[in-house]
Amino acid sequence: MTNKMIIGVYDDEGMLMSSIRQIQEKGFTINDVYSPYPIHEVFEALKIKTRLPLAAFLYSTFGMLATFAFLYWTSVVNYPLVFGGKPQNTLSFVVILFVMIINIGCLFTIITFFVREKKYPGVKPEILHPGVTDDKYLIVIQKDEKLSKNDLESINTLLKNNGAIEITEK
Amino acid sequence: MEKKYSFSKSFKIVCIALMAIGVISIAIGFISSPEKAWADLLLNNYYFLSLAIGASFFMALQYITQSGWSAAFKRISESFIPYIPVAAIIMFVLLFGTKSLYHWTHHEIIATDPILAHKEPYLNLPFFIIRMIFYFAVWIVLTQLLLKYSKKEDLEGGMTYFKKSEFVSKVYIFSLALTFSLASFDWIMSLEPHWYSTIFSLKNFIAAFFHGAAIITLIIIILHSYGYFPFITNAHWADLSKYIFILSIVWGYFWFAEYLLIWYANIPEETIYFVKRLAFPWKILFYGNIAINWLVPFVVLLSNYFARRKSILAFVIVFLIIGQWIDLYLQIMPGAVGKFKIGITDIGTFLGFTGLFIYLIASSLSKRDLTPKNHPYLEESLHHSMH
Predict the structure, then answer these.
(1) In what order do the strands lie in the sheet with A166-169?
(2) Best residue in A59, A82, A95 for a mutation probing chain B (most B CBs within 10 Å)
(3) Per-residue pLDDT reduced to its tens digit, B10-30
(4) Residue A123 placed within a domain
(5) What is the domain range of residue A160?
(6) What is the DSSP letter of B295?
(7) pTM of the entire predicted model
């Protein structure tokens, strides 16, 4: 038993969605779905929980505080310089804060994402199907001991009947 | 789906009672301080006109982007349109108050004021009236055309009326860019004719769109809680709240762009506008304005969980109703009256206009089915989901 998962390959979003629903109705769990672009329906159907938005919010808050501390330290504490009659702790901070919140928030979120997904420079990518880097949609179902032969067969027919252009195992 | 909204008698009485309160407080206002009363009339009329313009812009936007999800809510934005002719009438009544509202209508002031003399080719009463007629003509003709096509679509179906509406929407959006900008310059900015800011019109337009979209959402929430629109899912709430969220950011952006540039350039004839508003009593409203119109919707609707709860959405919108009033109060009162005084007449006038506005909306909603018939995107809207 070398193959661990069943992979159904689709080339249409509608077929993918109806297939996901039917497989779930039969009580099988879908472990992963690959698509060329994010599909919100998939998130809802698979009940995927992500804490990435919360992380992004926290990073942005941190970015705001850190940038403000930096601006305050440089232009008020360490090197107070009056120019144009403006107060030192000023409104024009807002523009820099705005940009830096986005910058720090995005950078740290992306880094977190890559760390969580275990993608570092030099990691050999695990490509389930060559179409995944192109325009194909993948449904991945893990084979575990609970699934009997009958179950596997019915998963196969479900995938096939819903218009999978290819079914492979890996 | 065939449910029709019925305008109940008791609700009608409530609206008429509100209007009566309004009439009484306007009358009291004219007896006690006519200057304030004219300004109140302008404020409230502009307030509800901006909601109507914002809502009709929202509708036009749905047409030109061919949005599917919002097709079922078309009636709500259509129901704002009947206010535009009413606003035109009140605006023409306001012409009798121009001497009290606008300094540039006094010839003796222009004679001694070189800046106003320089602006006279634009800021003079005959041209002001001509422009006003032009704005209202454009708005009324185009919105009534949209209404007409929508009625015909209900009867006949097919794509022809959708395509026609789409074309009219394009014309409407482009003409709004010109007319509403100039209208906000004419009616609001010329209250302080020495001061000018080019982003002023943009800010006012976004405020109109922002609060128009918010009120549309509020009406949908209210109707939904009475059992109408049974098909609404989380996806509809998410899309509606996205509008409010994104527009609050745009509003905050324009507000800050205006303020920062004037603050930074520090030219006395520009800063005087904000100096007045940062003096003590106005200061509360000044900061309240930013907090209510930007901070509250931004912070509350930031989380997806909150953005899809209709009770929380309604809570934010109630804030926004006050927010638009404060925004306009800050723009109008310091120039038109000069003294800070929020009295019973202000609130009474606002309630009166609210009654009138609700009456018009409810009567227009009760005339036809709540969900449009034969709209090409209707099915998509009814089965809208996240994707």
Answers:
(1) A32-34, A137-142, A5-10, A166-169
(2) A95
(3) 999 999 999 999 999 999 999
(4) no
(5) 5-50+129-169
(6) I
(7) 0.89
